[in-house]
């Protein structure tokens, strides 16, 4: 990718020999395209691209540029060129796609690792690279984050992926059109039990247990209910499920108020760290690649601020692409563990992100995709969530699953941004998947609900 | 005699404190269990979990060191969600003073009017009796929903909780002004405004000040809970954030500082009350 090479280095060739014009050979082009699949354009790289373009325009013949640089030196060349060509302005013009309607943006988050792309974008500069001045505000619970977003105190927020569906459908609040432009993370949740239940690994022994989930409208609630029901326990009659904000779960487990929880990390790992609980299973064992949290905004915000929305989405997608690479995870853990963000010991966050973790029973397990990052908001995810809402009686009556899914989970926008970030978005917006070995066909949601023995619908 | 009595009391206070710290220290001594797990595992968990136990209460020394850390650098800002304890306390005091002043502006004149007129007293009484016992935090969801701003909502909650003690005490103080004094005023044909300011207000001032003192105490109790609920800034948020981190030492530091500030607020109003009271 010669656009990223130092154009002031006389020993470098800038002329191109490939299809896109950016590489000296076709082989180099292919290699660069492959490596760019996950590459996010950093500020330094971007200015390099601009400088290279300017140098190419000034010296169409590469030999001329090299001779010029050898004669005057790179430093002199840089200052000479910047005096008559406003490099700074060219760089800005390259970075700015459209004028941002709103430069200062407030985003609310809950201190859990699901918020990784939203949080890490601040200390790691993904927002500033889009010209955004973002303030990420830690919030006490899901109901508060919902109210503060509905109040417009926050422009966008970290939400559980079922929440925007619930808000749009008017379940638990007045119906307000909400959208999910990107999923933040996939997998990354676990069932943790109190250490006193070390011997009760079979869910059939869990009758009478008290469980905590983060919120009624959460993947955690639906996954826990699904898991219990598959093992023959009725989640409404045989056990008690209550909603507890994630940061308070470990304290409650320690105080014996609850027997276990299905929670986002770092809560599970923190319970292990403090010797309070053990990780019974990761949710990825139930459904590999399930969505968890979402980056959400009101429809009003994205219609009134299209450029700001695009810049935000680009930052989030870039950050997600960066986080998807295992080799970056340690660095991310260090960036998001401090008091300003998750407020957790670095080792806890690191164990969650890298997937080499202590399970609370004396074993060190290695599950590299314990949490993973994929921004694509599959419409079929939304349909599955709605089938569970209906299964447990949170919504009633007929719903047009496909229509709601399409309106809330903005798969096309995400696909566009993913392409720009160098990721390969899927060609379709809907796919079949299986949960605990049972296949889900998004085209037949009502048949799916009818197929369960334990349900409230 | 009196002086030596005070000295003895101070001495006793210190003895009680030393005893408390000693018991705390002994109770939190490490029990020294052998590590049950291999070294790779124990590196990944807290020191207590590595020896097969739950993480323990911090010792007095841990808390003292933490406290010194906070006191040394109380005003740092390391981002929106990480600010020094001094700044957090300042936010909370600011909210309390604002809510409390607004409440005083409403409660004292209203209480005055209600206290002067037995008719209004009886008319307002049922409302006050119903509204008074409502926990101020119960207003929070309603406030967030209607005011649509979390900062204003927490000030509103302070306002509503400081309102009632001041209102009731003012009304009571004004209605309990001695008949003779009012009769003297009437005999001297003092204008109603002069009567209100020169006779009723000074007579009712000690009772009003007592109401204000109760109010500021309640307001300080409530702000911590309100900030824990809404988050963002303030000492309540600090406690919540450290709870999230399960850092008991930090929470104990915050508890101590909350107590000290509460005492300070109470003492200020007690001094003011002394200044307006008079010997009969």
Produce the secondary structure layout:
The complex is a heterodimer of chains A (457) and B (280).
Chain A: H1 26-35, H2 43-58, H3 62-72, H4 74-84, H5 87-95, E1 104-109, H6 116-120, E2 133-138, H7 142-150, E3 156-160, H8 162-169, E4 178-183, E5 186-187, E6 189-194, E7 210-213, H9 219-230, E8 240-243, H10 246-254, E9 260-264, H11 267-273, E10 277-282, E11 293-298, H12 299-304, H13 306-323, H14 329-336, H15 346-354, E12 356-358, E13 364-366, E14 371-372, H16 379-391, H17 401-408, H18 411-420, E15 433-435, E16 438-440, H19 445-450
Parallel strand pairs in A: 1-2, 1-3, 7-8, 7-9
Antiparallel strand pairs in A: 3-11, 4-11, 5-14, 6-9, 6-10, 12-13, 15-16
Helix pairs in contact in A: 2-5, 3-4, 10-11, 13-18, 14-15, 16-17
Chain B: H1 2-27, H2 39-44, H3 47-50, H4 60-72, H5 85-116, H6 118-131, H7 140-147, H8 150-175, H9 179-187, H10 192-230, H11 235-244, H12 248-276
Structural notes for this entry:
The complex is a heterodimer of chains A (about 450) and B (about 280). By secondary structure, chain A is an alpha/beta fold. Chain A folds into three domains: about 1-95, no CATH class; about 105-185 and about 290-450, D-Maltodextrin-Binding Protein, domain 2 (3-Layer(aba) Sandwich), CATH 3.40.190.10; about 190-285, D-Maltodextrin-Binding Protein, domain 2 (3-Layer(aba) Sandwich). Chain A is built from 19 helices and 16 strands. Chain A has helices at about 25-35, 45-60, 60-70, 75-85, 85-95, 115-120, 140-150, 160-170, 220-230, 245-255, 265-275, 300-305, 305-325, 330-335, 345-355, 380-390, 400-410, 410-420, 445-450; strands spanning about 105-110, 135-140, 155-160, 180-185, 185, 190-195, 210-215, 240-245, 260-265, 275-280, 295-300, 355-360, 365, 370, 435, 440. Chain A has a five-stranded mixed sheet, sandwiched between helices. In chain A, strands 8-7-9-6-10 form a five-stranded mixed sheet, sandwiched between helices. The N and C termini of chain A lie far apart (about 55 Å). The model of chain A is unreliable at about 15-20 and about 30-40 (pLDDT under 50). Chain B is mainly alpha-helical and about 280 residues long. Chain B has a domain at about 85-275: MetI-like fold (Orthogonal Bundle), CATH 1.10.3720. Chain B contains twelve helices and no strands. Chain B has helices at about 1-25, 40-45, 45-50, 60-70, 85-115, 120-130, 140-145, 150-175, 180-185, 190-230, 235-245, 250-275. In chain B, helix 5 (about 85-115) crosses helix 11. Chain B is elongated and about 90 Å long. The interface between A and B is large, with 41 and 39 residues.
């Amino acid at each position: 990718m010669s656009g990223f090479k130092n154009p002031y280095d006389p020993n470098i060739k800038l002329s191109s020999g490939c299809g896109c014009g950016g590489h000296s050979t076709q082989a180099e082009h292919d290699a660069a395209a492959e490596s760019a699949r996950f590459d996010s354009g950093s500020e330094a790289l971007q200015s390099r691209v601009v400088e290279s373009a300017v140098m190419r325009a000034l010296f169409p013949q590469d030999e001329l540029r090299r001779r010029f640089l050898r004669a005057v030196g790179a430093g002199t060349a840089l200052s000479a060129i910047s005096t008559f060509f406003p490099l700074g302005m060219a760089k800005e013009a390259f970075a700015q796609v459209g004028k941002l309607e709103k430069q200062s943006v407030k985003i609310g988050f809950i201190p859990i690792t699901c918020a990784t792309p939203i949080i890490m974008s601040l200390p790691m500069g993904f927002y500033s690279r889009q010209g955004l001045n973002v303030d990420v505000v830690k919030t006490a619970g899901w109901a508060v984050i919902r109210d503060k977003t509905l109040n417009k105190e926050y422009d966008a927020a970290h939400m559980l992926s079922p929440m925007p569906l619930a808000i749009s459908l008017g379940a638990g609040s007045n119906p307000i059109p909400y959208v999910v432009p990107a999923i933040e993370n996939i997998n990354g949740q676990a069932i943790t039990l109190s250490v006193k239940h070390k011997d009760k690994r079979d869910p059939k022994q869990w009758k009478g247990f008290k469980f905590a989930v983060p919120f009624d409208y959460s993947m955690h609630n639906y996954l826990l209910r699904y898991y219990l029901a598959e093992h023959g326990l009725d989640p409404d009659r045989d056990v008690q499920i209550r909603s507890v904000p994630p940061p308070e779960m470990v304290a409650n487990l320690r105080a014996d108020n609850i027997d276990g929880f299905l929670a986002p990390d770092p809560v599970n790992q923190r319970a292990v760290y403090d010797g309070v609980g053990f990780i019974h299973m990761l949710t990825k064992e139930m459904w590999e690649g399930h969505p968890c949290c979402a980056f959400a905004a009101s429809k009003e915000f994205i219609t009134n601020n299209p450029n700001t929305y695009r810049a935000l989405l680009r930052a989030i997608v870039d950050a997600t692409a960066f986080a998807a690479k295992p080799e970056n995870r340690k660095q991310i853990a260090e960036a998001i563990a401090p008091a300003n963000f998750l407020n957790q010991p670095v080792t806890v966050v690191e164990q969650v992100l890298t997937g080499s973790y202590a399970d609370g029973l004396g074993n060190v397990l290695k599950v590299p995709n314990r949490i993973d990052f994929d921004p694509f908001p599959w419409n079929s995810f939304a349909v599955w969530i709605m089938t569970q809402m209906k299964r447990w009686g949170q919504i009633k009556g007929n719903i047009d699953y496909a229509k709601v899914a399409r309106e809330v989970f903005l798969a096309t926008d995400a696909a566009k941004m993913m392409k720009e970030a160098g990721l390969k978005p899927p060609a379709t917006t809907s796919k079949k998947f299986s949960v605990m070995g049972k296949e889900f066909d998004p085209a037949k949601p009502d048949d799916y609900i009818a197929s369960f023995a334990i349900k409230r619908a | 005699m009196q002086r030596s009595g005070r000295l003895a009391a101070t001495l006793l206070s210190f003895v009680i404190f030393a005893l408390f710290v000693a018991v705390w220290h002994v109770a939190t001594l490490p029990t020294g269990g052998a590590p049950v797990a291999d070294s790779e595992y124990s590196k990944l968990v807290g020191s207590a979990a590595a020896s097969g136990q739950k993480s323990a209460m911090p010792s007095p020394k841990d808390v003292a060191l933490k406290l010194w850390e906070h006191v040394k650098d109380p005003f740092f800002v390391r981002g929106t969600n990480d600010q020094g304890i001094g700044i957090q306390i300042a936010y909370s005091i600011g909210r309390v003073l604002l809510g409390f002043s607004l409440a005083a502006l409403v409660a004292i004149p209203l209480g005055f009017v209600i206290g002067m007129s037995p008719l209004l007293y009886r008319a307002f009484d049922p409302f006050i009796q119903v509204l008074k016992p409502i926990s101020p935090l119960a207003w929070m969801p309603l406030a967030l929903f209607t005011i649509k701003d979390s900062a204003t909502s927490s000030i509103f909650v302070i306002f509503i909780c400081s309102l009632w003690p001041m209102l009731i005490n003012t009304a009571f103080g004004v209605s309990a002004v001695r008949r003779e004094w009012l009769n003297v005023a009437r005999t001297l044909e003092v204008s109603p405004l002069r009567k209100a300011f020169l006779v009723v207000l000074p007579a009712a001032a000690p009772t009003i000040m007592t109401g204000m003192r109760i109010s500021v105490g309640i307001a300080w109790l409530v702000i911590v809970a309100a900030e824990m609920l809404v988050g963002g800034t303030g000492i309540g948020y600090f406690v919540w954030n450290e709870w999230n981190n399960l850092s008991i030492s930090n929470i104990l530091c915050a508890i101590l500082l909350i107590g000290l500030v509460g005492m300070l607020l109470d003492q200020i109003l007690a001094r003011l009350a002394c200044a307006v009271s008079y010997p009969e």
